[in-house]
Amino acid sequence: MGSECEFALKPHSAIERGKPFLLIIMDGWGENLEDDYNGVHMAGTGFLKSLKTGYPDRWRTVKAHGTAVGLPSDADMGNSEVGHNAMGAGKVISQGAALVDNALANGNIFTDAGFEYIKETFDNGGTLHLIGLLSDGGVHSRYDQLELFMRGAHERGANKIRVHPLTDGRDVPDGSSVQFVEQLEKDLADLRAKGCDARIASGGGRMHVTMDRYEADWKIVERGWHAHVLGEAPHKFQSALEALVELKKADPKTNDQYYPPWVIVDKDGEAVGPVQDGDAVVIFNFRADRVVELSKAFEYPDFDKFDRVRYPKVHFVGMMQYDGDLKLPARYLVTPPVIEKTSGIYLVKNGVRTFACSETQKFGHVTFFWNGNRSGKLDDKLETYFEVPSDLCPFNEKPLMKAREIRDAAKAAILSGKHDYIRINFANGDMVGHTGVFDAVLDACSVVDECVKDLVDAIDSVGGSYMITADHGNADDMVQRNKKNEPLRDEKGNPLPLTSHTLAPVPVMIGGPALPSNVRFRRDLPKAGLANITATFMNMLGFEAPSDYEPSLLEVVRL
Ligand SMILES: O=C(O)[C@H](O)COP(=O)(O)O
Ligand SMILES: [Mn+2]
Ligand SMILES: [Mn+2]
User: Is the four-CA dihedral 400, 406, 411, 412 of positive or negative sign?
Assistant: First the structure.
């Protein structure tokens, strides 16, 4: 981690160390057009609105999408990984999506060690299995990357390919799985025309099958293991399209996110693509959080989170290495972004006592992503990480989620006098936003407003300071729109829900008794993004930020 003096920070010129500082991330909370579909605006969010209108020098927005957070283009919505990486690290880092694009464009993905490793199995007649999220959401994966990879792998000797797609409906509209499966079938047919035995083998909805995160519910991964690896699922079909249509007919309430697991079988009822000894397995998601668990199931011989029944000997690689601390997986196709010298490391090296807390769904966001995709603590003595277990139901059913429990834990941390820096994430705007259920979003945003107010009161009572911000938009626009930005409706006239993140900038609010009255936001950084947050909160903790960080948003004015 380097020497102490390499990390020494100078004291800030106007802000003293010593009083508690609270950093709140409101996940999925953008600053957007204030119309009837903006859940943040329509909810009871009077306290946050009062900070906007009451303190214009201490309220602003920053960019949270596209190139400002290291994504390939400004058409890319922000997401939790890139947002928390940027806020934790103080720099704009080229992220997984961009790195995979580069590796495909320059061909390195097919010449580096990870591909060499899987290629060994092609030469021995092994099947290439591809497991991952099937959409063009660009958050966890992208379809065009899968297509290019399949084609390139076939050109380099993969003669049998089995794809195990997970349907999305979360980063893209619900129902779009049909188009993506049709596109995949077309591209697989092209491969078959070239002599490759290429087929879809199994799948399911991403929130019910395979893509759990932060060990919220291992059963999700177990279902995936049974379908993808063992070739077993309660629902068997002859084609993936048939699976989507028939499963929806049988349960109209199911959707792309929550499809049950399914397996494709041949005319004799045999699964067409279970994973066997000698095969290659690639997870084609570039983002880590929702594939760490499946990677462990493939990689760890002594795995005990569920009974794998059969543990095939395969050549397993991730699109990236998903956990830099655990070196998981050991083999990967594209080298992950280097995220070093994060704010967390600087702050512990300067003796800052940190309390980081969220509920399970976002716990790794304020720890793992925050620390540059490292799973462990940076300093056992100075840091306390506290996880509130999340509910296991769809979050529109319990939109308050664990906001009040997080508030209570953070409040106790503030009042205890044991922590200098309290960092929390409220999941509601995002997790309920992804359900597309507008009334639930209203409850989700209101409870965040209530909890933020209580915590600002607690900070006031101990003479501390606070920053409230967000990682990207979501609840701030809950309707799909046409190119003119007009809401789209179904045949009954109901608005078509938007389940994904938005491109909106996010608010940043600062205040509290410890913030000197002559400190306010600069007016000369209109293009600032999430990476500018970092130097700003390091200032609020009493330090000048490292010189290679994006500039602080603060200025000290003469009164
Ligand atoms: O994984 C998810 O839940 C979504 O794809 C992205 O949401 P997040 O980036 O807010 O986690
Ligand atoms: Mn998020
Ligand atoms: Mn989200």
Answer: positive
Nearest CA to ligand 1 atom 11: 80
Domains identified in the chain and CATH numbers = 5-93+340-556 (3.40.720.10), 97-334 (3.40.1450.10)
**Which pLDDT value is given to residue 231?**
98
Residue 139, ligand 1, Cβ within 6 A: yes
How many angstroms separate the alpha carbon of residue 556 from the centre of ligand 2?
31
Q: Binding residue per annotation — 522?
A: no
In this structure, what are the phi and psi dihedrals at residue 416, rounded to the nearest 5 degrees? -70, -25
pLDDT for the residue 3: 63
Ligand nearest the Cα atom of residue 206:
1
**Range list of H helices, 423-472:** 428-433, 438-461
What six digits make up the tokens of 318? 């991730």
Question: Is there a contact between 38 and 442 (Cβ–Cβ < 8 Å)?
Answer: no
Residue carrying structure tokens 């879809």: 200
Tell me the average pLDDT across 360-370. Answer: 97
Say which residues have a Cβ less than 8 Å from residue 142's Cβ, sequence separation at least 6.
97, 100, 135, 136
Whole-number average pLDDT of the chain: 97
Ligand nearest to the CA of residue 433, numbered in listed order: 3
- For residue 235, CA distances in Å to 175, 203, 269 come to 19, 10, 11
Alpha-carbon distance of 463 to 452, in angstroms, equals: 16
Contact predicate 225/232, CB 8 Å: no
Nearest C-alpha neighbor of 260 from the set 281, 283, 282, 237: 237
